[in-house]
Each structure stands twice: as C-alpha cells, then as structure tokens.
Amino acid sequence: MLVRVRRTGVCATDLRIFHVGSSAVRPPVVLGHEVTGEVVEVGAEVTQLKKNDKVGVIPDVYCGRCPQCRNGSENLCVNVRSLGYSIDGAYSEYLKLPKVFLEKDLIYKIPSTMSLEQAAITEPLACCFHGLRRSKVGVGKSTLIVGDGPIGLMHLMLAKLMGAKVGMSGLIDRNLDLARSLGADFIINASKEKALDRVLAETTGQGADIVIVAVSSPPVIEQAISFASRSSVVVVFGGCPPRSTITMDPNIIHYGEVNITGSSGYTYDDYRKIIDLVADKRVMPERLITHTYSLSKIREAFDADIKGEAIKVMIRQ
Predict the structure, then answer these.
(1) Where are the domains of the chain?
(2) What does the buried/exposed string (b/e) look like for 38-75 if buried means 16 or more CB atoms within 10 Å of the residue's CB?
(3) pLDDT recorded at residue 26
(4) For residues 229, 245, 266 and 171, what is the CA-based torsion angle, rounded to 10 degrees?
(5) C-alpha 317: how far from chain center
(6) Which helix (H) or strand (E) covers residue 158, if one does?
(7) Is the dihedral of CA 83, 89, 94, 96 positive or negative?
C-alpha cells in the first residue's frame, strides 16, 4: 500500500535518534512513526481499504512467534520491525507499507469522528495507556505524574478518564497550566516548592498510590520513588541513556512493598482501545498540539521541540 502522508507527530524518540543515534536504528532510514495519511495505491489483493481512504498506521510489527509475543507481552517482541527504525517512516511525502502491515491489520480506516491530528497521536497515547494499565490505576487511586511534557500530559488525561485523583509535578508553568485545564487535581512546580512536602499534603501524609515517571532522568526517578506510599506502584516510563544507574534504599521495597516496574511500548489491544476512546471523544489528545510545521521546515520543528518552545509538534502536509 502506498500512503500519501498528511500528518506526522514529532516524538522525543525521533529527536534522540536524530541527535545521538540508536542501537535499534541503522541508517539510512527515514524517521517518523506517528502517522496518518490517504491511500494512493493498493496491491491487487487488497480489499479492506481503497484509494482515498484516510488511514492511520500502527507502526510496530510484532513477530507473534518469540516467547514475549506468545506470553502476551508482544510489546517486548525481540523481532519487532518498526516504522522509522528498520522500515522507512513518515517524515516523507509518501509511505510505502509492506504487505505485513495489511496481514496483521495494522492499517486502519480513520473513523469519521476522528481527525487526522488525533489519529497521528494515537501511538504515544497507546504507550501511555499501556503503562497505566500496568500500574492498575483506577477509581480512588491517588496518582502522581512526574514530568509535564506531552507524555506526562497524556498520562494525566488517561488517568483522569480511569477515575483516579491525579497530580502532576513539573517545571514549566505553561505546561502545568495546561495540566490544570485538563483536569489535574493538583499541580506542583518542582522548581518553586518542595515536591515531597506537597505530595504528602495532598495524600494525607501517605504518598501516592501510583507514581508515573514520565521523564528520562535517573535523579528524578530516585526522587519519584520517595513520593510513593506503602504498597504502591512506581512506573518508570522514560528511557534513560545506556548504563544509567539509580541508588535507593532496598528497605523501601522490602518493608513498604513498593512495586517498581517499567513500561515500554504498547500491545495491539492497547492501541485499538485508544482508537476507540479517541473516536468516542472520551480523550482529546489534539489539545497538546501547540506547533505545526510543513515537512520542508522539519529542522525548525525539531528545534522548537528541543528548545522547549512547543508541547507537541505536528508535521502537516
């Protein structure tokens, strides 16, 4: 299938690959994996989609054969192939999708209730949904999101939808103001107040039942663990540089039964649930888009993201 690219979201992973590389990416390859577009051409045996259909693309192809795929952890597939990594991605005018994307039903017709912008952001939203499911967030659970970037804000929207009391700790007043408008029960500017004192005040001195660390900083991860209550879950969402380390008192885990876990990627089930939630207007990720650029201005788009001028950047064609 050949797709005319219409929208591509700029991801922090793309920026990291562009500036420092990745062991999972071997150039030359076109980056970009948060994509929507219009069908231009289809192979002779394609029947489920046709020319001019507006489509979204689930960008990761899991093998279905490795132990991780067989035990339900397909997001950890050891043979994964992905747009923008091993398959040319969406920072381009056209995207040629191999037949495996059709065989695995990874190209979907965008529902009439969903915009191109919304569909382009379903991928990071699905990743956040996966992490929240691992944390078992829900009604009555006090939840703290550490990090006020687009990923932290997506966690906030979804955690609120799941019924939790949600706070956000960050450093940027603009982003924290948006967090409040998205329903945050409390916000903390960690550069202006002692975050731990505020977390304890908001949780009757207990700490948060769930802590989502949506930044890629070992010192912040260490601090975030101190925000957790007994019998809590701490989810490390942001990927850190190779060979990073953290130091903590193991008695926090032992005596407090604090569960420290990670979250990476999404399952296909996560992704399809997010498509439904966005199509039903139950979550509106387009509210995070602050800057839009043409493909010819992609370097400016990257710079705006790196400099912190934008929350979520979209490439529009």
Answers:
(1) 2-110+284-316, 128-262
(2) bbeebeeeeeebeeebbbbbbbbbbeeebebbeeeebb
(3) 85
(4) 70
(5) 23
(6) helix 150-161
(7) negative
Predicted confidence (pLDDT) per residue in 85-126, tens digit: 999 999 999 999 999 999 999 999 999 999 999 999 999 999
For residue 115, the model assigns a pLDDT of: 97
pLDDT in tens, 241-253: 999 999 999 999 9
- Give domain 128-262's CATH number out of 1.10.600.10, 3.40.50.720, 1.20.1250.20, 2.60.120.200: 3.40.50.720
Residue 271 banded pLDDT, cuts 50, 70, 90: very high
CB 106 within 8 Å of CB 58? yes
201, two tokens: 């005040």
Torsion on CA atoms 131, 135, 136, 137, rounded to nearest 10: -80
Distance CA 46, CA 51 (A): 11
- For residues 76 and 43, give the distance between their C-alpha atoms in angstroms, rounded to a whole number: 30
b/e sequence 133-149, b meaning 16+ C-beta within 10 Å: bbbebeeebbbbbbbbb
Coil, helix or strand for 170? strand
Q: Model confidence over 131-151: pLDDT tens digits?
A: 999 999 999 999 999 999 999
Could you tell me the two tokens for 189?
Answer: 């500017």
CA 187, 193, 197: angle at the middle one, nearest 5?
80
- For the segment(s) 2-110+284-316, the CATH number from 3.40.630.10, 3.90.180.10, 3.40.50.10540, 3.20.20.70 is 3.90.180.10
Burial (Cβ within 10 Å: 0-12, 13-18, ≥19) of residue 78: exposed
Give the global pTM. 0.97
Angstrom distance (rounded) from CA 139 to CA 226: 23
